[in-house]
Amino acid sequence: MNKGTATFAEIIRQIEKQTDYLFIYNEHEVSLKRKVSISTQNGTVASLLVDALKGTEFSYTMEGKHIILTKKQVEALSPVQHKKRITGLVKEYSGEAIVGCNVSVKGTTIGTITDINGKYSLEVPDNATLVFSFLGYKSMEYPVKAQQTINVTLGEDSKALNEVVVVGYGTQRKALVTNAISSFKPSESNMRPVLTPSELLQGRVAGVTVSTGSGNLGSSERMSIRGAASLSASNEPLYVVDGIPILNSNASLFNMGEDLSSMAVLNLTDIESIEVLKDAASAAIYGSRATNGVVVITTKSGKEGRSDIRLNVSTGISKFANKGRIKYADSDLYVETYNDGVERYNRQNGYTVGSAGYVVPISNPFQGMPDTDWLDLITQVGHSYNVDLSFSGGSKKTKFYVGANYNYQEGIIKTNDITKINLKAKISHEMASWLEVGANVSGNYLKNNRVPGANIGSTIVARAVEQRPFDRPYKPNGDYYLGGTDELARHNPLQILNEEVSYIDTYRYLGTFNADLKYKKFSLKNSVSTDIGYTYDYVYYNENHPYGAGGGRIVEYNRLVKNLLIENVFNYNDKFGDFEAGLMLGHSFQKMSTRTSSIDGRGFPSPVFDTVGTASEIYNASGGISEFAMESYFGRINLSYLDRYILNVTMRSDGSSRFAPSDRYGYFPSVSLGWNVSKESFWKFPQTDLKFRLSYGKTGNQDGIGNYAWQPLMSGGINYGNNSGMAVTSMGNNKLTWETADQYDFGFDLGFWNGKLNMIADIYLKNTNNLLYSMPLHGTSGFTSIISNIGSMRNYGVEFSINGHMNIGKVNWTSSFNISHNKNKLTKLLGDDLLPIGANRALKVGEELGAFYLFQMDGLYQYDGEVPQPLYDLGVRAGDVKYHDADNNGIINDNDRVLTGSSNPDFFGGWNNTFKYKGFQLDVFFTYMYGNDVYAEWAVTATRPGYRMAITEDVAKNRWTAPGSSDKYPRAVNTLCGHNSKNSTRFLEDGSFIRLRSLTFSYTFPQVMLQKIRLKGLRLYVQGDNLLLFSKYSGWDPEVSKNMDPQYFGVDLYGVPPSRSVNFGINLSF
């Protein structure tokens, strides 16, 4: 360096630039702007430091390639006092060393800081007290007695960290939160390879359940917060991403594939935190959209004085899980069982060889050859690739974050894959002391090649596994067998996979532009947000496809959704002596428009022409536009006294165009109280925190009813003769009003040993009134149904979570566990009558939503004489199912069905454990559910011996053959035999399970090594997802369901299970 003067910052920068040395110092002790004199040039590093530090209060030590700057120890002791040297280690609860921690003697200027390994050495007088302090951690005092080694562990100081929780339209200090809010930070857990934020919460948050329709990529999902609260309106929570309410509508409305989650387009690595607002007091600020709770997602921002470049790369494989749980009969066993049914059928009907109606026994046409593994033919090992890159940083005035992501995943069913591309930019700039402006924009693209076969009356998997074991997909000449070797009219699953193309392209733009005005304790935030989404839905049926006969067929569907949100939020915060007060007032205007069009073209000159414009016939073309607007006023008052007594009050008024002018406005208040008992003078447990919470709130729901349910609608395309016309196609209901929910919550937060062990518990009651439902109408009305407010429902439950961390030797163990119980029941229905819905469900006052409406199986008839005459006349015989005859009239009809079982669990939750040893880390995450029932609809065909579909090995071997042979599986019958296949408790099973959801092993390289290669962080990991399932359920997976509506949830029709995957990845930061 040149002679003269230089700042500490310049000296450090030059030494690190010209050598391999790295500096360690306490930035609160060492002023980097301080200037010192340099009188040497071209000397050694040591001589330069001696020269620069001469005359200052600082000294240095060299340890390897690290230079540690500390304040010199100043002797302020009497010469008669004795000194001794104390050494030790300072670390945090995770076991990581704290570098640069201040270690000082209380009441003196003697002190030092910890080195790169968290170690220190200090000479102290007898009977001294050491003080350990570091920014963001609670200081600790330790009296020195006879020991010479003192190791300490510092806990995080929530006050120093100024820990805040995101709430509606703002943040709150955690100490002042009086609501049931759960926070989740993806960075603090091992992020599973999932597509949506809700799947990240699976098993992590008490009171929250997340289920997927199937394991197919892009399939719909169901997230429930404290149970289902509505019948036909939406039961999904409101998602708010950086202040923008995200539309819950699924991307696909044309039933050409499984519905795509509206959240699937987001890049999960952009997420900073997720807050789940569970009680009405926290959610009421969002008013009419918050009955089912609110999920607030905050994305990452740049930090002042800190620049980061992060690169995450991963790849993995996935496969069909639990394939062997359903074991099918082989060809020999199938033929034997089938022919048993043939013989019984012919004998019962008096048919002989050659007579009309006689059914000929079958044989295996491929005897001696391997059976066809139909499931293997349609499944694959899926591969995935993910690359994520982000840049962030900032100065005092400007902060920025830029992220990009590419994600490709193959499904476990052939042809199924997803490609995602995400770009995001977030910037804020302080134009003046009173004005800050910002922009937050993201562009998202997603392409989902879906599993074909949505319109074949079942799923592609069901069509595959129902094939007989000896059937072949292709004839010797290469043509498809249509419905098996005997050419019966059934779908060939390979024909569907190969001759159908089905995909959806989704483009989404989210953008917010804001201006924040500040004056002393006042602030005003003005923002304009847009959420614009375009989806293109395409299905092509080749001429070899059953639906493409006659030259092929193309169906296209276009959907453009524009959502505009304008908000103005005023805040005032102040302190008055021991009181702290806050006021928030806001106004919001939202307008959404949806434009759709569809076209169905048929007859193409060649498969090369795959655009609808080349079709010889336009079979159907339609379009429509729909608009919706809402204007809202809202406010919140916060008041606290010494952080001890806390009061929060909110109010929101929503005006919605979905209701008639007389019922357009809804009002949603809330109030909550908090008592920090540990702030009281009588509290004698300094390391224990206790807070009680009590709240009430009202929320609303208006989703699921359409934009014009209150008024009659006319549609075009209603032609008379050769003239086009229009007609009224739906009846309006101008008496329609808000569906509302009143919720009460009581809970407590309890922490021991300065946060080393924490417990949270809540008990709640939620009453939903004016339930919205589509009621059937008499045919004479000319309409099939009308949306009405028909009743009330109650949900009540308990939630408990516990987390803690401890050291076992050199291993740090962190564990979190949660368990929840929720029950619901209908308390009022229009007319209080039982209302059947679907094939196996019904609504009834006093019963829960989710109960099954089934015939009660009472075993099998063992002798013909046991069969009631009316049933005997219908062909029921010994070996057929015996149902409970409720009215004892010998006839089994709907009057004999009963409400039984439920798809709702008795309790559910998750358990996560993290073990750290030096740089190694093992994460083990379980989820569980107990007491939920599953209706195994797949078993209706798979347990029907004697019919021309595949059956399970268990049924074939243990079917009824003679009196006393079985009381579970009926006889083989060579007909559909609807009697044995009724919706009954025969197919109702216990769906309880424990699942090893995720297992991750990782290694994080130490900072000492990384600093040599100019890296901030390097982590390698291997992660397994859905590795183990423990369940008595006989199907592949108890969590899947063919319908995600809570009225019908829990029915499994060969649902594709969540895939079992293994991923390898690397995380780099610069």
Question: How would you summarize this macromolecular structure in one to three sentences?
Answer:
One of its GO terms (molecular function) is siderophore uptake transmembrane transporter activity. This protein is mainly beta and 1070 residues long. About 1% of the residues have low confidence.
How would you describe this protein?
It is a single chain. With 1070 residues, the chain is mainly beta. Among the domains are: 1-72, Phage tail protein beta-alpha-beta fold, CATH 3.55.50; 311-321 and 376-415 and 426-443 and 451-855 and 897-944 and 981-1069, Maltoporin, Chain A, CATH 2.40.170.20; 328-375, no CATH class. The protein is 8% helix and 46% strand. The protein is built from 13 helices and 56 strands. The chain has a 22-stranded antiparallel beta barrel. It has a 5-stranded mixed sheet with strand order 15-20-21-18-19. It has a 4-stranded antiparallel sheet with strand order 8-7-10-11, with no helix packed on it. The longest helix has 19 residues, at 331-349. The relative contact order is 0.11. Residues 469-1027 form the TonB-dependent receptor-like beta-barrel domain. InterPro entries: Beta-barrel_TonB, Beta-barrel_TonB_sf, CarboxyPept-like_regulatory, Plug_dom, Plug_dom_sf, Secretin/TonB_short_N, TonB-dep_OMP_SusC/RagA, TonB-dep_OMP_SusC/RagA_CS. One of its GO terms (biological process) is siderophore transmembrane transport.
